[in-house]
Amino acid sequence: MPTFVMVDLETMGNGTDAAICSIGAVKFDPDTDSSTDAEFYAHINLQSSQNNGGRIDAATVLWWMAQSAQATAAITRQDDAVHIHDALIRFATFYQGSDGIWAAPAVFDVPILESAFKRMSTGAPWNFRQVHCWSTVRRLLNIPKAPNAEAHHALADARAQVVAFRQGWHMLKKASHLLSP
User: Fold this and answer.
1) 57, 74, 102, 179: which has the fewest C-beta neighbours closer than 10 Å?
2) Rg (CA), the chain
3) Positive or negative, the Cα torsion across 129, 133, 136, 142?
């Protein structure tokens, strides 16, 4: 049975060199219920992210300023913020043993993580064949986004994506006999 990691980032930009504010991820087997899931969350010290080469984009900062107090508090508080290097090392350890990384969309979260790992002089713990886009699959299967009471919180977003993923996974397994030659 596969074990995947669904990842979500909160950032201060939208390029591959964006400063990362937080990383949320869920390691899961899509054939089991959420009781077997493992979770990862790192609230990152923004200054350390910027010092590591992460860029802060004014348009993104303005976007964050228009979000809920709950969402902005999740990225601005400093009491539990960790250095970007510590967060990336912990995330690489969390990822070990996984069969692939999923993101919604993969063209946003994964390249930003890969760029941060590269700036730290280490490679990402996955290869390009292990990168998958949940947004694409969700749209193809016409699966709505799962409810999420904490929008723009990296771990809450990753959890919601896994809920919807499991629905899609079971739809595909049910229809797999139609896809076989």
Assistant:
1) 179
2) 16
3) positive
What digits encode the pLDDT tens for the residues 22-54?
999 999 999 999 999 999 999 999 999 999 999
Beta bridge partners of 55: 18
Those residues with Cβ within 8 angstroms of residue 135's Cβ, 6 or more apart along the chain or in another chain: 104, 105, 106
User: In sequence order, which residues have a C-beta less than 8 Å from that of residue 166 and are 6 or more positions away?
Assistant: 28, 30
Would you place residue 174 in the very low, low, confident or very high pLDDT band (cuts 50, 70, 90)? confident
Q: Is the whole model's pTM more than 0.90, yes or no?
A: yes
Q: What mean pLDDT do residues 48-68 have?
A: 95
Are 7 and 39 within 8 A, CB to CB?
Answer: no
Residue corresponding to tokens 């290097």: 85
Which amino acid makes up residue 158?
A
With b for 16 or more beta-carbon neighbours within 10 A and e for fewer, the 100-119 pattern comes to: bbbbbebebbbbbbbbbbeb
